[in-house]
Amino acid sequence: MSTVWGRAEQLDFRSRVRGCLLGGGIGDTLGAGASGAPPEPGSAPEEPDLVAVHGRRGAVTWATQLTLFTVDGLIRAQIRRDRGHWHPPTDIHRAHLRWYATQHDWGPDERRADNGWLAMEEWLYARRDPPLPLLLGLGDERMGTRAEPKNPRARDAGALPRSAPFGLLVGWEPELVGLLAAECAVHTHGHPAACLSASAYAVIVHGLARRAPLEAAVGEALKLLAGGPGHEPVSAALGRALEGVRAGVPDVHRVAALAGAGGAENALAVAVYCALVAEDVRHGLSLATSGPTARAAAPLCGALLGTWHGETALPPLWLAELEGRATLLELADDLAMELTQPQALHGGGTGEDAWLRRYPVG
Predict the structure, then answer these.
(1) In angstroms, what is the C-alpha Rg of the chain?
(2) DSSP-based three-state secondary structure for 326
(3) How far apart are CA 58 and CA 319, in angstroms?
């Protein structure tokens, strides 16, 4: 993609970035309120609606919190790149440690102006049922690597929601997007199926952000997975999702079959299937929240649909009650500006200090 952005391109990209973050948030709150029970024989997907979780309608979970901090880390990584000190996995790891600091009452208080604006958002300090591998993986400052991953047996989908923002790096090649997602997944989830599912998910979002059809984006992810060590479970799960699309009218029982016994690759398959067969965002999320992987698959599906169709495709009544909507929008717009107009933000101009106060890089 060209590095010269026209006005129409910028508006389209901003809509997709907003759609990715807001769609993921909507899926997150819907998934949190879903029962997760297997479908009854002959049942159809119910129209989803926001229910009270964590004390209010529209509340989000750790998945959205951690996604926000991932975006914060990506922006800081981009700033460091222009200053010649660039290692994105380290910046993402530092951002995730900042999220971890919001999840406990001991240690230094992150609510400091010199720590960036996101750490001052009080609502992010609520603990929303983070999976144990996240807490264990980020419980010390050692960064997991592909050679020495954290939690090598962790196979759940906990690394996937936060991988969506990597797909918004549309100036990168898909191979590099997938590599970054995998390198950051092992900070908490070291099982090959988990980190490769995160990699494939980021590549799929990347295709959508570049305006490719979803099936083509899935094909790109399968191509990059092929032949790599440990890819078989993830490739097979995505293959089953594509086969399900071609098998006939979508139903909740096919969703349950794709969900299988759980795991990151099956949550990814459910999300992809539901997005592919969706008549609109409501229909896609009604399917994604209908089975046992609802809590894992719904945020993934929401981000896919939001990136694919843009923010205006998201149901306004759900957006109206979404917790943290203003923060999600603000961060989405900041990421879109950073990726399309970096020189105007930190190219030595008079306003540079204001941007660096928002995203300090030390």
Answers:
(1) 19
(2) helix
(3) 9
∠ CA 303-299-267, rounded to 5°:
110
Q: Is the pLDDT of residue 269 over 70?
A: yes
Q: What is the pLDDT of residues 15-54, one digit of tens each?
A: 999 999 999 999 999 999 997 766 665 566 677 889 999 9
Tell me, what DSSP letter sits at residue 170? T
Euclidean distance between CA atoms 238 and 361, whole angstroms:
38
Query: For 7-35+51-358, CATH number?
Result: 1.10.4080.10
Specify the pLDDT at position 113.
72
What's the pLDDT at 39?
65
Q: What would the two tokens of residue 337 be? A: 């500006």
Quick one: average pLDDT of 166-185? 98
CA distance 223 to 213: 16
Residue 203, classed as helix, strand or coil, is helix
pLDDT band with cut points at 50, 70 and 90 for residue 251: confident
Question: Using CB atoms within 10 A of its CB, is residue 247 exposed (0-12), middle (13-18) or buried (19+)?
Answer: exposed
Give the C-alpha separation, 167 to 303, whole Å.
Answer: 11
Which has the closest alpha carbon to 296: 178, 182, 191, 201?
201
In the chain, what are the domain boundaries? 7-35+51-358
Nearest to 89 by CA among 163, 200, 194, 9: 163
Give per-residue pLDDT as tens, 50-60: 999 999 999 99
Residues in Cβ contact with 35 at an 8 Å cutoff, skipping those fewer than 6 apart: 294
Distances (CA, A) of 5 to 2, 12, 123, 273, 339: 7, 11, 34, 32, 10
pLDDT surpassing 80 at residue 100 = yes
Using CA atoms, how far apart are residues 147 and 186, in angstroms rounded to an integer? 9
CB 216 within 8 A of CB 177: no
Where does residue 324 fall: left (phi above 0), alpha (psi -120 to 50 degrees), or beta otherwise?
left
